[in-house]
Design a protein that fits this description.
With 57 residues, the chain is mainly beta. It has no helices and 3 strands.
Length: 57
């Protein structure tokens, strides 16, 4: 499950994720964001709201 966090007008906006053994849950949030300004080396400011198209984000 992907989720966007923080205010959309800030550098802190990012995409996180959670995993579960089945679709019914229980979901556990990952310790670190999947996409963030820091994780992308500052190349993208506030990445969030990811879409999956053709198996790619």
């Amino acid at each position: 499950m992907a989720l966007s966090r923080a205010a959309v007008d800030s550098c802190g906006y990012h995409t996180g994720y959670a995993t579960a053994p089945t679709l019914a849950g229980t979901f556990v949030k990952a310790d670190a964001p999947f996409l963030s300004t820091e994780r992308l080396g500052g190349a993208v400011d506030g990445p969030g709201g990811a879409d999956v198209v053709g198996g790619n984000i």
